Amino acid sequence: MTTESLRVARVARVAKVAPRRRRPSALRSLSWAYIIAVIAVTAFPFYWMLRTALSNNYALDTKPSSLLPVGLTLGPFERVFGLATPAQAIAQGGSGASVPFARAFLNSVIYASVVTVCVVFFSTLAAYAFARLEWRGRSIMFRLVLFALMVPGLMTFLPNFLFIKDLGLLNTYPGLILPGALFSAFDIFFLRQFMLGLSREIEEAALIDGAGKLRILFRISIPLTSGPIATLCILGFISMWNDYFWPLLVTSNNEMAPLTLALGVFQQASPESMPDWAGLMAATLVSALPMLVLFMICGRKIINSIGFTGMK
Amino acid sequence: MQFPRGAQPPARRSGARRRDSPLAWLLITPAMIGFAFFIAYPTLRGIYLAFTNYDVLNSPQWTGLQNLNAMLHDSGFWNSVKVTIYFVALVVIIGTFFSLLTAVILHRLTASTVIRGLIILPFLVSGVVAGTVWEWMLDPELGIVNVALTRIIGHPILFLGSPNLAIPSIAMISVWKAMGYNAIIIFAGLQTIPPTIYEAGRLDGASEIQMFRRLTLPLLRPIMALVVVLSVIGAFQVFDIVNVTTKGGPANASEVLQERIYQTAFSGNLNFGYAFTMSLGLFAILIGITFLQVRMLRAGDSDLG
Q1: A15 pLDDT tier (thresholds 50, 70, 90)
Q2: What angle, rounded to 10 degrees, do the helices at B113-120 and A277-309 form?
Q3: Minimal Cα–Cα distance from B157 to chain A, Å?
């Protein structure tokens, strides 16, 4: 190929591209470099968890910078699940403690899903009353919701702990679930805003056809609001799944602890002077895994939901 | 999807008002029970207990302004306020900067869901997971970050174990966890800006940087305000990452308010009364800052339209 034809080809390419992309390509490469760096920082710790979790804890200090597991073994996972005998676990650098995974997983599923489903359902009912019904006291009640939006969790955590204790519900599912399951100022506000934006025409038509308000709510308004409802369910589920402070307050025995707390307990049991990093990373991975699997299944929906929260 | 701002349901004929009432009260009853028992009652009880001596085992004794006075003279409390504000400032400034930068660059380069998915990974895990994995990576002897640092600068850095670096390190972990989430919110906001605005700007000969400052930023203001306000409120209540990494140490170098409140209530002499006084103090600070922010950022209005 001659230099001439090369130049022609280049000019042709530039001419074709130029009207769309006038940004210098140096800036573009720099931008890609930045994005790749960001991805490296966000994703690398997850790889490092896996790499460490598959390593032999005593061998870790021989090759601390090896990118592959050192002394490949499933021992850390066996320690976490309590499959290794305490003697074996201690011989491999563990503390003999394990995560009651099945139970903690069940607790997390119950806690996160019951709270999320209940609070979104009750918030939808309330949002409909605020957006579509005419009733005495509506503006006062809505002002209460706005007030609640301002009260941070930390004001209510400790008194709620006392209240649940007074009710004798410490270390029970109702005690864990109740405070979050009935009311969320954010959910009510978010859904009300959305319902106000819905066209009234279909509802008015249904009303003329003789449908009751309750029927309209379940047959028309809720289906039309399914997008924001799904958003709140997904984000609520993630935040409940990862919740630490409230379970820490109300569950003092291992039977009731969700995964976050079980991991915390396992971490605390690790010997201070010579931590069982391999076992810890295995436990961390195990506790993060359900959410990561959920993300692989419906990642697009989750990402769209997050973007959606800024749009109100 | 755009919500109408400040839209009110149009007034209906007054007959409807009475007809709807029973149904409306029925629909809001579960939510209002939740509000009454788990928001209003605990808040009022917390405020009352803030003025008492209370250790859970014995009934509370009214002590008037004694707790408040003690708090104002409690150097540990003020240290926690200072540490918390330092932490919040770091998280909000660094976090917002990187979220905005990432969102803007992503918006220009690609709409790939996979890339956004990779960036959002840390948001999916709990603070306990984030804290534990970073504690391992920052470990002075075996942590990969310090192994690399030793190669480059010759010595490791005591990130979480050093009084000066404990808070910046925790702030970094916190930014790592939340950056992707905020970037996705901003990214979604950028997608709502009509491209014609940029074409007009380009025709007028505006440079990339000018367009970013004069067009993008003003149009993004409501969303940036949301991101900043949420970051501030979240950062003020940071607990889980601190609790698993440093527990407030070394000495009190990373003792954020929430950690101090938790320790006061649950360790040693169960000083719940004083814990509530500090909660009230934190609440007051939070309200003040939220008002200030909403005013400063003019959160309500975008310049779009």
Answers
A1: very low
A2: 130
A3: 16
Across the range A25-47, mean pLDDT stands at 92
Rounded alpha-carbon distances, angstroms, from residue A274 to A277, B63, B160: 9, 47, 17
- The pLDDT, as a whole number, for residue A297 is 86
Give pLDDT tens digits for B119-173: 999 999 999 999 999 999 999 888 899 999 999 998 889 999 999 999 999 999 9
The Cα–Cα gap between A191 and B25 comes to 18
CB B129 within 8 A of CB B209: no
Which residue carries 């990779």 as its tokens? Answer: B118
**In order of start, what are the domains of chain B with their CATH numbers?**
80-269 (1.10.3720.10)
C-beta of residue A312 within 8 angstroms of C-beta of residue B223: no
Size of interface A-B (CB pairs under 8 A): 296
pLDDT 10s digits, A191-227: 998 898 888 888 888 888 888 888 889 988 999 998 8
Chain A residue with minimal CA distance to B172?
A41
Query: What domains, with CATH codes, occur in chain A?
Result: 29-97+270-297 (no CATH), 103-258 (1.10.3720.10)
Q: A291 vs B124: CB contact, 8 Å cut-off? A: yes
Band (A149; pLDDT cuts 50, 70, 90)? confident
The minimum CA-CA distance between B125 and chain A, rounded to whole Å, is: 6
Least confident of A94-108, A158-172, A225-239, B260-274: A94-108
Which of B19, B47, B124, B271 is the mutation pick for testing A, counting most A CBs within 10 A? B124
Decide if A299 and B33 are in contact by the 8 Å CB cutoff: no
Distance CA B275, CA A304 (A): 40
Q: Which residues of A touch B258 (CB under 8 A)?
A: 154
Report residue B167: phi and psi, to 5°.
-65, -45
A chain contacts of residue B140, beta-carbon cutoff 8 Å: none
At A6 the pLDDT is 47
In this complex, which of B125, B137, B272 lies closest to A291 when CB atoms are compared? B125
**Closest alpha carbon within chain A to B22:** A135
Question: Do the Cβ atoms of A80 and A270 come closer than 8 Å?
Answer: no
Query: What's the ipTM?
Result: 0.84
